[in-house]
Amino acid sequence: MGSQILRISPFSLSRTLINKSSSTPLFLSTNLSKTHFTFNTKLSSGFSGRVKRSFRSGIVAMAGPGSVQKSEDEWRAVLSPEQFRILRQKGTEYPGTGEYDKFSNEGVYTCAGCGTPLYKSTTKFNSGCGWPAFFEGLPGAINRHPDPDGRRVEITCAACGGHLGHVFKGEGFGTPTDERHCVNSVSLKFTPEK
Ligand SMILES: [Zn+2]
């Protein structure tokens, strides 16, 4: 449910973008995916390889798809302005500034909007792109939506629809899925492993 195949050919995309040494100022809407790619200088060293996929037997999402519905006013009441801008208005935090960008404690990342578990720390890896990167979400916790221009695939919390970031495939990070969930720290809340 909600899963959609990447429309973009991952190989042609990553080749094109990696070969472009972009000096474009960070972060202006349509250039975002280029920025993500050109920041990837540690293509093979970022992933430690110690992570196995055993987490599947652990945590499951507590809220079902679409189970958290709030009006815009209700979201404004419970979220900080920055959380509202990113989760509900699909904003993006400035690269390299997020709370969890260079954070590697063991635990679970839940949705900052509704508290649904989204990622385990065992699937987090260092992409060098300036945002937290995960190679896999918890089963059923993440929905995918190709952008209208077909260039990127947005990811959202399946329970509340909150914007998380984008997912990229085929970049050669050497992770089990060869995917990179590029997620705003603001969209996440970390809970240490007990
Ligand atoms: Zn949520």
Automatic annotation (TrEMBL):
Name of the protein described by the UniProt record: Peptide-methionine (R)-S-oxide reductase
One protein family per Pfam: SelR
Annotated EC: 1.8.4.12
Residue ranges of domain MsrB in the record: 72-193
Entry function: Catalyzes the reduction of methionine sulfoxide (MetSO) to methionine in proteins. Plays a protective role against oxidative stress by restoring activity to proteins that have been inactivated by methionine oxidation. MSRB family specifically reduces the MetSO R-enantiomer.
InterPro entries xrefs: Met_Sox_Rdtase_MsrB, Met_Sox_Rdtase_MsrB_dom, Mss4-like_sf
GO molecular function, one term: metal ion binding
Cofactor annotation comment: Binds 1 zinc ion per subunit.
